[in-house]
Amino acid sequence: MPLKLKPPRPGKTPFYYVRGTYLGIRLDRSTQTSQARAATVIFRRWKSEIERGEYRYPVPERGPMNVKPTFASAALAYIQAGGERTFLSPIIEMTGEASLRDMPLADIDQMVIDRAAAALYPNATAQTRNRQFYTPVSAVLKRAGIDKRIQRPKGWRGKKSVSWLEPEQAFALFAAADVLSAEFGMFLRLLCYTGMRLGEALAIKIGDVDLGRQAIYLPETKNGEARMVHLPPELVTALANHPRGLDRRPSERLIRFHAGGRLRELLKRAMAAVGLSFPRRQCGFHLFRHTWATWMRRYAGLDTAGLVATQAWRDPVSAHRYEHLQISEEARKADLLPVPKRRRG
Asked: Would you tell me which CATH number, out of the four given (3.40.50.720, 3.20.20.70, 3.50.50.60, 1.10.443.10), belongs to the domain 167-286?
């Protein structure tokens, strides 16, 4: 229920009170005033404090001295400390027997978490449950000083199979993209030769590009850390010939496209033009990140540690998947296995 200012209830309370949920914070609190104007001021102040992450639950004047912290109070403290609230809101607002909101932190164990995740996301994939439930719950508990290991749902890492482009396929795709839009063709090259994620590449500003140093500065990445991205000579040339030029304001975006249906349609048309087809979940723009990693292993000789050292990944487990795309030296020993002798002519 959205946050609302409720009038006094004759026979129950002479005061206005605030009830509802706003940005993941649930209130059921008296304003301690029977004046409508004063109550409205208090209501607006509490709402503003929630928006700024500064709202504080009132300290009980009576009752036991050692009040057990609940998940809701721990989540509020986490948000006030700068934590991400996006997926916490539905967890806090969740009601029912499996709800974590009013549960003491000490009572939250693996079985409680599994039951709540299943109740809130009954039809979600393991990856979705992990991202939208297990990860935020774990973050709140750790912030509260409870460093218990939480088992993630089976299959949360997803399938390890990936698709990538062979060089001939990539070159043909670039050419087809150039026909649709010169800037779109340049954009695909940017993704393929840097391994950047779609959102990272679309957020680049003109001021982040330094062709002299062959670099692009990414102030914000999925890993939460800024990093420098190297530009191979192919990209330096492509960016130097940007269809709209680089002599624009530093705050302007390098690429004019936005993430959405139109951009996906351009990629779909370019792929269709050269007869490329991949599994549904592997035919998007992440295909170019997989291609970059595969090429970096195959042609640049990087192993998992080398891929992590590029700073494109922080977790070696994520980079390890590309080892399976190369035939190991040990596997090549199969060339030495005995075979029947061939009869001469």
From this structure: 1.10.443.10
